[in-house]
Design a protein that fits this description.
The protein folds into two domains: about 45 residues, no CATH class; about 170 residues, Vaccinia Virus protein VP39 (Rossmann fold, 3-Layer(aba) Sandwich), CATH 3.40.50.150. It is about 40% helix and about 20% strand. The chain contains nine helices and seven strands, in the order αααααβαββαβαβαββ. Strands 3-2-1-4-5-7-6 form a seven-stranded mixed beta sheet, sandwiched between helices. α8 links the parallel β4 and β5. α2 packs antiparallel against α3 and α5 runs parallel beside α6. The two termini are about 35 Å apart.
């Protein structure tokens, strides 16, 4: 879950968005946002930002479930880790934008996992599951049906506002996703994960560099400039021994 998308996911159920959009309706909605009684100021700002976000509008027009789809699209355009016929796991998948992109790029077997219930996506397995619970990684491996070509993680906890606590929680999820990748990827596979506050910590970064030929941090243009999120991309997985 993206830091910048968390508010959106708290406000609506996952599901497909309708294509197109009426500018007059958007303008009328903006006026209601300004005058609604009892609405928190932060909620008003979030809604206004959504109305003016070009990636939100593009997602609506192109039928993607969230603006986050464009982050994965940019990442794959640059690093080219999604291949036709790939077996892919998407951890923290709600509402399903990354799953949609993986399928569009030719993945043949995609498993999306999230705490939030997600509407079905044709061609994918969507699992409502807490990935951090005991036994959950085994359930995902079973759904994959074999070694993965790509493990993607958009996992992020609900933030507390306490920077040190939030960083520890976020890094715990990234490490859990990386351990799953070490145990699940086939040789040559890729691991993609969201990280915050300067990227992966030195210990995890060293571990990734020992198991992948190439490890990079990169921030897509579609990631909002005020967000502290960036993405870790590890390519060409090497089995130990």
């Amino acid at each position: 879950m993206s830091e910048e998308d968390g508010e959106e996911r708290r406000r609506r159920r996952s599901g497909p968005v309708t294509k197109g959009g009426d500018q007059r309706a958007a303008k009328q909605f903006r006026e209601r946002v300004k005058t609604a009684r009892g609405r928190k100021y932060s909620s008003k700002l979030w809604l206004e930002r959504q109305l003016n976000d070009p990636y939100v509008k593009m997602a609506q027009m192109e039928g993607y479930r969230s603006r986050a789809a464009y982050k994965l699209k940019e990442l794959d355009d640059k690093f080219k880790f999604l291949k036709p016929g790939a077996r892919v796991a998407d951890l923290g998948a709600a509402p399903g934008g990354w799953v949609q992109i993986a399928l569009k790029r030719g993945a043949s077997h995609v498993v999306g996992v999230d705490l939030l219930e997600m509407d079905p996506i044709d061609g994918a397995i969507m699992m409502t599951l807490d990935f951090t619970e005991e036994g959950a990684p085994d359930k995902v491996k079973e759904a994959l049906g074999g070694p993965a070509d790509v493990i993607m993680s958009d996992l992020a906890p609900w933030t507390t506002g306490h920077k040190s606590t939030d960083h520890l929680r976020i890094m715990g999820l990234v490490e859990a996703a990386a351990d799953f990748a070490f145990d699940t990827l086939k040789p040559g596979g890729a691991f993609v994960a969201k990280v915050f506050q300067g990227g992966a910590e030195d210990e995890l970064l060293a571990k990734l560099k020992s198991r992948f030929e190439k490890v990079r941090h990169w921030k897509p243009q579609s990631s909002r400039s005020e967000s502290s999120e960036t993405y870790l991309v590890a390519l060409n997985f090497k089995r130990e021994g």
